[in-house]
């Protein structure tokens, strides 16, 4: 083939459609029985459940939404105002916490205000390099202890200082003045969080979008073909059943550490690939309904195994039940089995120290050989699906 695409998730499918529109020769290799990657859905108890966790389509990028509405038309979506909350200090508070301190009783508001006032970034102190120190410096001691430190430990790793700080620099400083103003006027100030408004299919799970994209190019996708080896010199991949496929150009959207490199390139890249870390997350569904208006809730409490809960009835009309997300290492502490569960081996790329240099080396070296990384796993960055599609559209225009 002219183009060989590894993976039929949002990145691979978008790239495939871009190539189809240019009348290019291409083939998509997919490990699973169906397309969608982390955005796949199942029908559980009569209604959709997203087995990769909570996935929604952000409304902000018109180019992306226009493209995706070609496959699942806009009239087949509902639009929602985001309502996400954090359970902290015994109550549910709107996300982000720093913008909604005003929702606490006055005495707790005063504790947060004092903590934010004394945060290192607000006192002109130099930025620390370790993750935990950086959180205290950026958000203040109380937000760090009540929410950010325990929550990040639950979702990413027990030893947070293995993570870098480069991925958090986009977070704005928590303004004491804005927080004080919000407490006085009893409303949030500051930047809106991601997915402030979002689309979700009216009658299906989020996975329906990607199934429809795949259906239109079904003759170009090979399912149940797990990539086991990549020869960068010959630009050939070998699958688990021993079959080989070759492309003039390879677009890799699957994890670099999920297959072996079997030529001289391995000597150059193996150390960098070994630095790419990820976590695995289990989705567990419960058919009883929690009484809360939020679509999803963050739980920093160490005694709870899960870190996030998705309330299906608040974005799937007519549905009940909810599902939780739990890092695999913490599932042993889960006492309730639930009605359904699914483990995502590759859930979140971890932003460990040295990761940026490692993935840059991999992408630069492989691109010189006509092999390009794309998307959450091909670029090893925590991209949402709308960002992945945007990046695939841009790459597709250049090829």
Provide a short characterization of the protein structure.
The protein has helices at 10-21, 62-68, 106-117, 131-139, 141-155, 176-185, 207-215, 265-274, 355-367, 375-378, 385-398; strands at residues 3-6, 26-29, 41-44, 47-50, 57-58, 77-81, 84-88, 91-94, 197-201, 221-222, 227-231, 236-239, 244-246, 249-252, 260-261, 278-286, 296-298, 308-311, 322-327, 340-349, 371-373. The protein has 399 residues and is an alpha/beta fold.
Give the helix/strand class: alpha/beta
Estimated share of beta-strand residues: 15-25%
With strands numbered from the N-terminus, the spatial order across the biggest sheet is 8-7-17-18-19-16-20
Helix content bin = 25-40%
What average pLDDT do the residues reach?
94
Question: Explain this structure to me?
Answer:
- The chain is of the alpha/beta class and 399 residues long.
- It has a 7-stranded mixed beta sheet. It has a 5-stranded parallel beta sheet with strand order 10-2-1-14-21.
- It has helices at residues 10-21, 62-68, 106-117, 131-139, 141-155, 176-185, 207-215, 265-274, 355-367, 375-378, 385-398, and strands at 3-6, 26-29, 41-44, 47-50, 57-58, 77-81, 84-88, 91-94, 197-201, 221-222, 227-231, 236-239, 244-246, 249-252, 260-261, 278-286, 296-298, 308-311, 322-327, 340-349, 371-373.
- 42% of the residues are buried.
- It is built from 11 helices and 21 strands.
- The chain is 29% helix and 23% strand.
